Amino acid sequence: MNECCGIILFVLSLAIGVQSSNLQCYETEFPEGFLFSASSSAYQIEGAWNKDGRTDSIWDDLVHQRPYLVRDNATGDIADNSYYIYKRDIEILREIGLQVYRFSISWNRILPTGFPNKINYEGVAYYDNLINELLKYNIIPVVTIYHFDLPQRLQELGGWVNPYVVDWLGDYARVVFNLFGDRVKYWITVNEPQQICYYGYGDVMNAPALNYKGIAEYYCAKNVLLAHARAYHIYDEEFRDFQQGIIFIAISAEWYEPASSDKNDILAAYDSNMFTYGQYAHPIFSETGDFPQKMKDRIAERSVMQGFVRSRLPQLSEQEIDYIRGSSDVFGLNHYSTFYASRNQSVYTNYESPSFFDDMAAYTFQPPEWRLSPDAGVATVPWGFYKLLQFIKREYNNPPVFVTENGFGDNGGLKDNDRVTHLKGYLCALLKAINHGSDIIGYSVWSLLDSFEWMCGY
């Protein structure tokens, strides 16, 4: 799909629905077979950070070497202690009545060197027991292969900006397919590539917190896409026929709405959508593949202006474009909130240069009248979720969507009325999208447990 068609579809999506904080639910039943789930990740809940052969991940290194980056100097050393009390976690799932549990495998708990030359069977036993206990109670495991916790030894070799990470993830994925694929039928290759690349390599909001703006996040993006595709093709070619599972990527996507009807604001919103989740969704789910054309053009233009001899966005070869395109059985969608986007002349000099935001050239904001979570950037805007789902349907030919994360952070306590309101609104928006043709197969709330929330601590 060319850029002109993409913008037309975006403008059509803007006309959908009414911008109200609440959507009326005229349908209250989900389709037969719809999957309800709760999510977690290894570093956030397991604890046992130095037990039974587990080695350090980039998050262990960050919280121990630079504790000042995390609120209250919190760590995941103990977290929810799920490594020892996973059976209680499963009891909670049963009490809630959920059919599915999404969790992740710790790469460094399974492969302490980061490579498949040494498998830690004490770590394997933990995941074997967890999976078997889930299946004992007919709870379906959805397993994330990579959720932010790269082995520290691999980070010392360059991590996600080293092209060999494509081989590293592929080798690790093959190990877990061999170990657990007889029982696991839903695999997520990589969780939230934007958070890995921009937050971790272009900023300090995720490990390894390199803060190499405008360059490292783009090298990372290419490598994450290729690594995801490698894991997908390994499963497709070596395991799918006899394991009979599905495999997909989970992309974080917020909705960006024009702040006004001005054409500059409309373009700012479109560009914001394309630069954020489109950077990863377009290469996989679009008919043409590759990075969004606007992104390629803008970064190339800015790079020349800044004195670089080539674009800071690495080029994907035709072979790589073909390899990545179509490499996901489902659109895994992590969604939390909506932002307004605007653009005027000052935006071109407002941001550090080079940087991702300078390249995107848009102001994004949330009005104070929206119900805002203590978790920065999360507001209750169900209509934005609905518009995002409809845009995915139009832009990417209505792929099956599994909402792999959605939630509302709060400061704790049992009277969490804001969270209840948030979840009701978003489930209503999801139902409306289904009734208007979106192919949505499941919904997973974040999170099962009150866990270590990265830089925000607990």
UniProtKB/TrEMBL annotation:
Residues 1-20 form the signal peptide. Keywords: Glycoprotein, Glycosidase, Hydrolase, Signal. GO terms for molecular function: beta-glucosidase activity. SUPFAM superfamilies: (Trans)glycosidases. The active site is at residue 405. InterPro entries: GH, GH_1_N_CS, Glyco_hydro_1, Glyco_hydro_1_AS. It holds the Pfam family Glyco_hydro_1. One of its GO terms (biological process) is carbohydrate metabolic process. Its EC number is 3.2.1.21. Belongs to the glycosyl hydrolase 1 family. Homodimer. This is beta-glucosidase.
